[in-house]
Amino acid sequence: MAEIKILDTTLRDGEQTAGVVFANEEKLFIAKLLDEVGIDQIEAGIPVMGEDEKNIIKKIVKSNLKASIMGWNRAVIADIQESIDCGVDAVAISISTSDIQIKHKLNSTRERVIEQMVKAAEYAKKNGLYVSVNGEDASRGDEEFLLRFVKAAKAAGADRFRFCDTVGILNPMTTYDKIKKIKDHVDIDIEMHTHNDLGMATANAIAGAMAGANYMGVTVNGLGERAGNASLEEVIMAIRTSMGVETAYNIGKLKDLCQYVAKASNRYIPGWKAIVGDSIFHHESGIHADGIIKNPSTYEIINPDELGLDRRIIIGKHSGTAALKNRLALYNIFIDVSTSYLLLDKVRTTSTAIKRALTDIELLSLYKDVINEASISMEA
Question: Which residue range forms the structural domain that includes residue 362?
Fold first, then answer.
């Protein structure tokens, strides 16, 4: 398997999330944080949008980052020239490849699409740029036409092909088959650009990697149009944990990056969000908590310390006696089996009544109640 690299498009596709706007200084800071994580390539924006966009892209280019900086373009020479003016070292050249978009969006034909793409790619290569040719809506395109398109892109000098599941229609099995077919017929790097309309963006990106794609297009926190894109943090951890492929990315920086982007985008991270949610290492269920207390690997596949998160045993309706004993031991209180079951009954009743987990103060109060009741019973 070829080395898998990450292309982050938070500053382009992420900012295309409805209602999201990054201030220029926020964009610069996000780019620096991405670089600290070790992201290989940053899609910094769309230069043809105007001088303000170009100015921040130029600042990012001049920030001495290790990452390659890419500008996004239509398959139009004038767009590419704007990217060149910004000093980027790479360009994405995007054009529709499905019949529905070619006809209704571009009012064009398959032949004209390939001709337009080839001219743009050749111009970019002539100017010394790394070129990614993007097949917009490739997932709904005719497969034989898509092969012609990719072969033409490679002949024009493209360094890679971006396979776009623009409307998030695929599933992992169909994704694997489509990417495998391209890899079997064309020797070119492939980037996965997957959307989350059906909740499968990360899974489809990983399926593409398993079929031979070696670039993963992602956004921080899964930002993006409609339901968003594959999440950077999920894809990085899935490559390492699910695929078993070691990477050099600094996962200890993921939390800071995700929290900053959440604040800048006004799209806050739910506590249950995979990889970076504050509560994903919180355990309440009695069976789970018992396993975690004995050995965290019974229910955790990632060490929370690596991500800057905390493991917690929650005391609530679903707790068991092991969790109660564990929590009380922190206060040098050690209880026998009989006491633990009496306390557990009170914990479950109270948690149900107040519809939440208990605080330590509440647990200690219930413990005192059990002891007092036992004392009264003995006196009687």
Answer: 282-379
